[in-house]
Design a protein that fits this description.
It is built from 27 helices and 33 strands. The protein is α+β, with helices and mostly antiparallel strands. The protein binds zinc ion (ZN) (2 copies).
């Protein structure tokens, strides 16, 4: 063994050994319980960034730990390989996106391997392979049959310069094209959509069962799905169609003093009086160019203009002025609201600003009264009891909502209504590097789906990607020109491709049988492995990806492919790795640190240890050269420790007769259950400092183990390992029991390090156990177990007497009370024998010393 810690000579060797042994293949322990550990798969850009480094290191530590706990672990990886960046690059240099993507995958895979991630590489997938995306097409056809895929009118960003639809992320400065800087306008075009709204209630209800997801994420999904229970009410507008408002507070309608339309509402042009038209149009135009978040955000000032029109409140017959305002959106509800300033803070601020009347119609239930309109400092938004509300006065808000909705329905001017924030998922894109949508257009038969047997519809080898004009696929005649599956006459293929969120909606299931040529995946494998037990990824995916992923799983259940409702049990969202200056890493700040050069400099183990030690997974971390240096020095210190304590595990102490060489694990062989820690007879004689060391070892095992459970706290586990190393340096073994205690500590240390710094852990493990361990990898070894008696913070021995005669003793925590000691004492075999068949008349307990059972 080298005295110097040189990761370069250690890491590639163990990576090769793991690969040879197939150590990370899922399905090696068919008899064991399964665990599916998944990280969000990467888009293969040229080099890995630190965010990738973090997400895969977190998942890998978990996967390695679970394998050592005896589970059959599935830990797959693949590439989210279709998408815009490759296409944009192609616009610049004319290379086929496929060519570039393949190169990137090769580079990316090599980087991942250097970090020692324990992936089952046999299951690797890339979504740009026709063998993958053909199943996107298959799902499309199945959903089309069931009406889950529809064709609708959708709004798109149209670049007036490029003459093409561009993505939201390509629109800069509100309304400019990122590429040509021409104005971008909204254009209505036909598009394909998944009817995710048909699943809205299910997706909402399902959130209740996701107790192991971060609450932040489920809350975001809840809001995004956004169920509102309320009522539609029609306000008559003379000479026009009625103005339909949606409100969740119809109980306050007698306090309505004005109505507000979204600037985009079709009625705006129709109701605005001629003398106000210019001002209204200018406002509408300005709003059209303002970002939605900016318009409606928490701190955004409320602003609007009066249209000059009035609408009639059907409950009171009163005319109220009609305004337009920034905070009402066309896409929510009906795009029109009734405003009740006394009972809605937003309406209150608006009314104060524009001098609109305020009328109180709700009072708190318990005899209190809120201030009158003039003295009111803020809206009173809570439920209460109605006043000044005609026949509904005196009802509670809840009763009133029910009765007033029914009244509106009976009178024909409204009804109870549920509205959703969730919209259908428009997924057609005018791009090249995506899954072709498998339909053709026949002059005679219109849209005709491509028959299943003709899948996949493959992307052409030739790509004409200019970023302007028609969609790229339309420019490849060999692709476009085809025949109608029904009549065989000439027809044109759909030239739009699918949103790449389609690819990531079900990839976790493809890993289950990635080479299956007859179906998307094997349902029997799904039964074995799903749902995903732990999913690790960035919190930025809270609503789009993670909602589509849940939606798709439900579609797969409808198709009989999976059995459960939800795709994933536990979600871990990891924080960001910032630059050394605490700012987000960016070329602009010159603070980018990437994994590759760090592995060159320090080795993968140090980088992994830094990532896991800097903070718990969900917290942001700042890159720190000093901390990375410190962790490298820690590993070097561990390395030297094993070297310095070779006398503790020299030949005479190695395993000996009680620890026969362990054979390599064959596939299907059960995981060794017995922890291999305490097989030295000499350990039993450890006393004084040696016993103290043993206690520390077992407490460390407990702390590291707990760091993998409930809340993930790898950092406290690693801190415990550091303390153990300090203790080992401070301890000078002289006799056999002491050497045995050191040996026990070192064995535990190597095993506990394995999920964090797997290469150095393997090396040291094989060093400490010698020939006994040579054949079996640490990755296959059981996770160490702790002895509960040794982990109690401080323990004392209590003598147990029966009628004054010593019959046994028990080890308990210093603080243990009478009941705890009694329970332990009664369980002692000899004590039990002496108590059998007798009645305990009295128990004398002297804390920390003695317990005497007086029996008769
Ligand atoms: Zn443009
Ligand atoms: Zn036809």
């Amino acid at each position: 063994m080298n005295e110097r810690y040189e990761p370069k000579s250690v890491e590639p060797r163990w990576q090769a050994r793991w690969e040879e042994a197939g150590a990370f293949r899922a399905g090696r322990r068919p008899g064991a319980e399964k665990r599916y550990v998944l990280e969000m798969f990467p888009y293969p850009s040229g080099a890995m960034h630190m965010g990738h480094g973090r997400v895969y290191t977190i998942g890998d530590a978990l996967a390695r730990h679970l394998r050592m706990r005896g589970y059959d672990v599935l830990h797959p990886i693949g590439f989210d390989a279709l998408g815009l960046p490759a296409e944009n690059a192609a616009i610049k240099d004319g290379r086929h996106p496929g060519e570039r993507t393949r190169e990137n995958i090769v580079a990316f895979r090599a980087e991942m391997k250097r970090l020692g991630f324990s992936f089952d590489w046999d299951r690797e997938i890339a979504t740009c392979d026709p063998e993958y995306y053909r199943w996107n097409q298959w799902f499309f056809l199945k959903m089309l049959e069931r009406g889950i895929v529809t064709r609708r009118e959708g709004k798109a960003n149209w670049c007036t310069g490029c003459q093409t639809v561009i993505a939201n992320e390509q629109v800069v400065e509100g309304d400019r094209c990122e590429r040509c800087e021409s104005p971008v306008v909204e254009k209505v075009i036909p598009e394909w959509a998944f009817r995710i709204t048909a699943f809205a209630q299910e997706l909402l209800d399902g959130l209740d069962g996701l107790g192991e997801w971060p609450e932040r994420v489920t809350t975001m999904q809840r809001n995004w799905i956004g169920r509102s229970d309320g009522a539609d009410v029609d306000f008559a507008v003379p000479g026009q169609a009625p103005l339909r408002v949606f409100t969740t507070r119809v109980d306050t309608i007698h306090g309505c003093t004005y109505a507000v339309l979204a600037p985009e509402h079709p009625l705006v042009e129709k109701v605005t009086v001629p003398e106000r038209l210019a001002e209204v149009r200018a406002f509408v135009e300005r709003m059209r160019r303002t970002d939605v978040l900016e318009r409606t955000g928490e701190g955004a000032p409320k602003e609007g203009v009066f249209t000059g029109a009035f609408a009639v409140n059907p409950f009171t017959g009163e005319k109220v002025p009609v305004w337009i305002a920034n905070f009402v959106l066309a896409g929510y509800g009906t795009g029109a609201v009734m405003s009740v300033p006394a009972h809605d803070q937003r309406d209150f601020e608006f009314a104060k600003k524009y001098g609109l009347p305020i009328r109180v119609v709700i009072q708190p239930a318990r005899g209190e009264r809120i201030a009158g309109p003039d003295a009111l400092a803020a809206a009173y938004p809570d439920d209460g009891v109605l006043e000044a509300s005609g026949p509904f006065t005196g009802l509670t808000s809840a009763e009133a909502r029910r009765k007033m909705s029914a009244h509106a329905e009976a009178k024909g001017f409204g009804k109870a209504e549920v509205r959703w924030h969730l919209r259908d998922w428009g997924f057609s894109r005018q791009r090249f590097w995506g899954t072709p949508i498998p339909v053709v257009y026949c002059p005679e038969h219109g849209m005709v789906p491509v028959p299943e047997k003709d899948l996949p519809v493959v992307l052409p080898e030739k790509a004409i990607i200019t970023g302007t004009g028609e969609p790229p696929l339309a420019k490849v005649p060999e692709f476009v020109n085809t025949t109608c599956p029904r009549c065989g006459k000439p027809a044109r293929r759909e030239v739009e491709t699918m949103d790449t969120f389609v690819d990531s909606s079900w990839y976790y299931a493809r890993y289950l049988s990635p080479r299956d040529a007859t179906r998307p995946f094997d349902p029997a494998e799904a039964k074995r492995w799903l749902p995903v037990d732990v999913y690790v990824g960035g919190p930025e995916h809270a609503v789009m990806h993670l909602l589509y992923f849940r939606f798709w799983h439900r579609v797969m259940r409808l198709l009989g492919l999976v059995q459960e409702d939800e795709p994933c049990r536990r979600l871990v969202t990891q924080g960001i790795v910032n630059g050394p200056d605490g700012r987000k890493m960016s070329k602009r700040w010159g603070n980018v640190v990437t994994p590759g050069p760090m592995v060159d400099r320090y080795g993968a183990d140090t980088l992994r240890l830094f990532i896991l030690f800097a903070a718990p997974p969900e917290k942001d971390i700042d890159w720190s050269d000093e901390q990375v240096d410190g962790l490298f020095r820690f590993l070097a210190r561990v390395w030297r420790l094993f070297h310095a304590r070779q006398d503790c595990f020299g030949t005479s102490h190695r395993g000996g007769a009680s620890a026969p060489p362990s054979p390599p694990l064959a596939p299907g062989q059960p995981h060794p259950a017995a922890p291999a820690l305490a097989f030295d007879a000499a350990l039993a004689q450890a006393a004084g400092d040696a016993l103290e060391l043993r206690r520390r070892t077992h407490r460390t095992i407990k702390r590291v183990t707990e760091g993998f459970e409930a809340e993930l706290k790898f950092n406290t586990g690693i801190a415990a390992l550091m303390e153990l190393v300090n203790a080992l340096y401070a301890f000078e073994p002289k006799a056999d029991p002491e050497r045995a205690a050191v040996r026990e500590a070192l064995v535990a240390l190597a095993a506990l390090l394995a999920p964090f710094a797997p290469h150095v852990a393997e090396e040291l493990w094989h060093e400490v156990l010698g020939p006994a361990a040579r054949a079996r990898l640490l990755a296959d070894e059981p996770w160490p177990a702790f002895d509960p008696a040794l982990v109690a913070a401080d323990t004392v021995t209590i003598a147990v007497q029966v009628n004054g005669k010593l019959r046994g003793e028990v080890q308990v925590a210093v603080a243990a009370g009478e009941a705890e000691v009694r329970a332990l004492a009664e369980a002692e075999a000899r004590v039990k024998a002496h108590l059998a068949g007798k009645t305990v008349r009295k128990v004398i307990f002297v804390p920390k010393r003695l317990m005497n059972f007086v029996v008769g």
